[in-house]
Automatic annotation (TrEMBL):
It comes from Streptomyces variegatus. This is Succinate-semialdehyde dehydrogenase. Gene3D superfamilies: Aldehyde Dehydrogenase, Chain A, domain 1, Aldehyde Dehydrogenase, Chain A, domain 2. One of its GO terms (biological process) is gamma-aminobutyric acid catabolic process. PROSITE patterns: ALDEHYDE_DEHYDR_GLU. Belongs to the aldehyde dehydrogenase family. GO terms for molecular function: succinate-semialdehyde dehydrogenase (NAD+) activity.
Length: 479
């Protein structure tokens, strides 16, 4: 395992919390404490803010090529340390090592992508329609940013936010989830090694999120918030940003529909379901939540999916051959247990799984439920666990109405062999992303984000850097 860093990272230095507080980091596979890390408070937040603000002007003047090269070097270091970072991530988060290695590659790619975007920030020049003025457009960094990342993809969610901020010329305070601070601290160390100037990135690990974040957002010197997490917390943060009109990006909750039509290739659909449901043990905002399967193929789809899910090996992510690791903590597992119990009480049939294993760790088996009632709680709740809930439908209009009947709109999945139908349904879904005959939509080169209460703005793709840039227009008289 790579060196475990457990202090705050402020101004390029590793420091303890001002009041000496620490917090434990647990291994969800055993329940044992891995280590303790610094637990930042308000004084630490003020120091990080002052550091980021002081570093902003000089960092904004740094040549785009210099910013690009830092990101490229960090990309290479991450890949060189794939196994070390994967073991660190599995230890604090639980996902199997194979998935952790995949996340390391995914995380590194954000740095490579934005290293290329850093040198493509452009503006514009032209004459205005009345002929009296020339228009000079330039783009400049929005300013110091607060980046708040979740626990489910602790490395990739960091690089997806840090990458465009560095490329755009913004300084940052990163607040990782308290369950998974170690990956973020390791990332800070890598960026320092890659040549990132002191003060550009500051990492505050904390269990006191309100004490740390609210003063930053209400204080007026942080000009950008990028948050990935629940819709409930997102609403709270938006309210705090309103006082000083902080620019926001929000990647919030999801309730993804997975639609299988009667003409779908069931082999392709089941393969897609395994990815869309079981990536990260189902602990992903893009996870398929509601499986709408045409009545004529629902039985066969359910049997095939249950067979595949039942064959998965559950255990500690560090153990060879394991497919499914533990859920993040006891609270997360209890939520899944309650949702499954509610669905069964309302008439759902358990095709596989559904029972919590005995022993240590926060494990829950891959589970498939058939004949799920639309009134079940898991129909309007983000499950965040390895549970596939199957409902049937009879026609296209019906399934579109039911799929869109949710306040969330992050992603949807559509399986059909008809191109016209596939495009028609994709366009009718009220979501920001669609997987058409595929269970994987995330890619650093594509814009990631949702509509309705699933968020604001986009991350990744050509537009990802726009969230960290402002336009300035200069009028120059024509003489």
């Amino acid at each position: 395992m790579t060196e475990v860093l457990n202090q705050l990272f402020i101004g390029g230095a590793w420091v303890d919390a001002a009041d000496g507080a620490t917090m434990p980091v647990d291994d969800p596979a055993t329940g044992e404490i891995l280590c303790h890390v610094a637990d930042a408070g308000a004084k630490d937040a003020r120091l990080a803010e002052e550091t980021a603000v002081q570093a902003q002007a000089e960092w904004a003047r740094t040549a785009p090529r210099a910013r690009s090269e830092i990101l490229r070097r960090a990309h290479e270091i991450i890949l060189e340390r794939t196994d070390e970072l994967a073991h660190l991530m599995t230890s604090e988060m639980g996902k199997p090592l194979a998935e952790a290695r995949g996340e390391v590659a995914y995380a590194a790619e954000f740095f490579r992508w934005f290293s290329e975007e850093a040198v493509r920030i452009d503006g514009g020049y032209g004459t205005l329609p009345d002929g009296r003025n020339r228009m000079l457009l330039s783009r400049r960094p929005v300013g110091p940013c607060l980046l708040i990342t979740p626990w489910n993809f602790p490395l990739a969610m960091g690089t997806r936010k840090i990458g465009p901020a560095i490329a755009a010329g913004c300084t940052m305070i990163l607040k990782p989830a308290p369950q998974t601070p170690l990956s973020s601290l390791a990332l800070a160390g890598i960026l320092k090694e890659a040549g990132l100037p002191d003060g550009v990135l500051n990492v505050v690990t904390t269990s006191r999120a309100a004490e740390v974040c609210e003063p930053l957002l209400r204080g007026g010197r942080i000009r950008k918030l990028s948050f990935t997490g629940s819709t409930a917390v997102g609403r709270l943060l938006l309210a705090q940003c309103a006082d000083t009109v902080v620019r926001t990006s929000m990647e919030l909750g999801g309730n993804a529909p997975f639609i299988v039509f009667d003409d779908a290739d069931l082999d392709v659909a089941v393969d897609g379901a395994m990815i869309a449901k079981m990536r990260n043990m189902g602990e992903a905002c893009t996870a398929a939540n509601r499986f709408f399967v045409h009545r004529s193929v629902a039985g066969e789809f359910g049997r095939r999916l249950a067979g595949r899910m039942g064959a998965l090996v559950v255990g500690p992510g560090t153990r060879s051959g394991v497919d499914v690791g533990p859920l993040i903590d006891a609270t997360g597992r209890a939520k899944v247990e309650e949702l499954v119990a509610d669905a069964v009480e309302r008439g759902a049939q358990v095709l596989v799984g559904g029972r919590t294993p005995e022993g240590p760790g926060c494990f829950y088996p891959p589970t498939v439920l058939a004949d799920v009632s639309p009134e079940s709680r898991l129909m309007d709740t983000e499950i965040f666990g390895p549970v596939a809930a199957i409902l049937t439908f009879d026609d296209e209009d019906e399934v579109l109405r039911r799929a869109n009947d949710t306040p969330w709109g992050l992603v949807g999945y559509v399986f059909t062999q008809g191109l016209d139908r596939g495009l028609r349904v994709s366009e009718a879904l009220e979501v920001g992303m669609v997987g058409l005959n595929t269970g994987l939509v995330s890619n650093p080169a594509a814009p990631f984000g949702g509509v309705k209460q699933s968020g604001l703005g986009r991350e990744g793709g050509r537009v990802g850097i726009d969230e960290f840039l402002e336009y300035q227009y200069v009028a120059v008289p024509v003489r």
